[in-house]
Amino acid sequence: MPVRYRFVIVARYGALMEQFRRFAIYYAPAPGPLADFCSAWLGWDAARGAPVPHPDIDGLPRPVAEITERPRKYGFHATIKPPFRLAPGVPPGALHEAAAAVARGLPPVTLEGLQISRLGAFLALTPRGDDAQLNMRAASVVEALDAFRAPPTDTETARRQKAGLTPRQDQLLLRWGYPYVMDEFRFHMTLTGPLPRPEAEAVKAALVPHLEPRLSRPYVIETLSLFGEDEDGRFHQLHRYTLSG
């Protein structure tokens, strides 16, 4: 790419990124049946940067808006590199350019499929079958883009450490700014906030007939996305990168 066009692209995304206080690399499904339904389920379409009406779902133990309140602001996604502030002195737009370069070097990952799972107190879509290749891709993204991350503040670190981390998770927090990366990473697309077990089971039963037809088998992870957090704490999808390695 000629230098002058590269400069224009970086400057364009630099101006855009100045509107956001934190950034993240997420996996977000391309527009289609799964993305559209789950964005409506959460009530926030990160690609459009706008709220969307919740669907009518029978059999829920409480209103959708309450069930999805906690994950709503993030949009429907799986975290690859967790939200971070840009490091001091990093030129605006450089993160976009680096993320695009990382994506060009990574091949897509084919999973057996996705399933609705209970993770702790919340529900999420998780991989079926072997996810080792996906975990390796996620680790490489975390490492490759780490120079763009400002270290967490002492307050942020202390808040994480109060969550009852294992010694290994504490090591990861101090090294990478987040405890659930590398060997502690687990790919998941969050569907609910924390729920008591009976409510989680009721929500899962209500979602199955709506989600199962939208979960392709095999399921291919072929893109990554740059997200930004606005002043209200809502995340917006800024750019989608194709994995083309």
* Fraction of residues in β-strands: 15-25%
Q: Kindly report the spatial arrangement of strands forming the biggest sheet.
A: 4-1-10-11
Shape label: globular
Proportion of residues in helical segments: 25-40%
Alpha carbon gap, first and last residue: 18 Å
In short:
The protein is α+β, with helices and mostly antiparallel strands. It has helices at 3-17, 33-42, 64-67, 69-72, 94-104, 132-144, 154-161, 167-176, 197-211, and strands at 22-27, 44-45, 50-51, 78-84, 109-111, 113-119, 122-128, 189-190, 219-221, 223-229, 235-242. The longest helix is centred in the N-terminal third of the chain and has 15 residues, at 3-17.
Care to describe what's here?
The chain has 245 residues and is an alpha+beta fold. Helix content is 37%, strand content 22%. It contains nine helices and eleven strands. The chain has helices at residues 3-17, 33-42, 64-67, 69-72, 94-104, 132-144, 154-161, 167-176, 197-211; strands spanning 22-27, 44-45, 50-51, 78-84, 109-111, 113-119, 122-128, 189-190, 219-221, 223-229, 235-242. The strands form four sheets. The protein has a four-stranded antiparallel sheet. Strands 6-7-8 form a three-stranded antiparallel sheet, covered by helices on one side. A two-stranded antiparallel sheet has the order 2-3. A hairpin with a 2-residue loop joins strand 6 (113-119) and strand 7. The radius of gyration is 18 Å and the shape is globular. The two termini are 18 Å apart.
Layout of secondary structure:
Layout: H1 3-17, E1 22-27, H2 33-42, E2 44-45, E3 50-51, H3 64-67, H4 69-72, E4 78-84, H5 94-104, E5 109-111, E6 113-119, E7 122-128, H6 132-144, H7 154-161, H8 167-176, E8 189-190, H9 197-211, E9 219-221, E10 223-229, E11 235-242
Antiparallel strand pairs: 1-4, 1-10, 2-3, 5-9, 6-7, 7-8, 10-11
